[in-house]
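Data availability (excerpt). The following record was deposited with the supplementary files.
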Amino acid sequence: GTVVATIPVGSGPQGAAASADGSRVYVPDIGSNAVSVIDTATDTVLRAIEVGAKPAGLAITPDGKLLVVAVGGTNEAVIVDIASDTITRHVPVGQAHASCITRDGRWAYVGSQVTTVPAIVAIDLTTYAATSYPVDHAPRMLACEDEIYFTSIGLDAVEVFDPDTGTLNAPITTGASPHDLRAGAKGTELVVSQTAGDLEWIDTASGTVKSRVATGKLAHWITLSADGALAYVTNEGDDNVSVVDLAKATVTATFTVGKAPRKMALRP
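Predicted structure:
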């Protein structure tokens, strides 16, 4: 529960994603319009991949071969080959903000925050063809499960998108200003409410919040341990991270990190 290294990556780091083997961590930086590649053996930046203005959300395919970068300033999803750290594709997505990838690695879903026509954009990672599905509110964070769960700007609920029909199911009411979300145990989705400062358990069958635990001010991001037993939650307003035992729904530890922590990645 202590900070062992601090790695400079630019003036505006916006996320983090670890490679499948844990040897690299990728961090988008809006200050340099690039993704920093960190060598985890030495905790140093190996190189920066220039991807365009305002890079934000990252997602890595399950096979560890592709990195999908949502680049809002250039209105696209940038596809990076991880073996060479080179850009292989630019796929148009208006004001791209965040993404997730299906378990089979076939599809990337990217949130488009265009004010007049917010959408979920499905990208086929074999052909790079993209299909846009209009939604009611601008997507924030996404989780790719059997259905696509996502939080939205100005909506105190989790939206549920059916990828088979391309339509929205009924939203699931949560605490105010929900942000990040992750799959928990079978039939459970985890989400943080920034206003409530808590972690909430959603029962996907009933579409309701079944439990919640306070973590801290402006809870922002969730990272799960490899065995799924623990959730790490950044508390942006408290400058710390809470460790939550998911089986017991209790906070077991809290450790201080840098100012206003937001996104995290767990190195395998």
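Summary of structural features: The mean pLDDT is 96.
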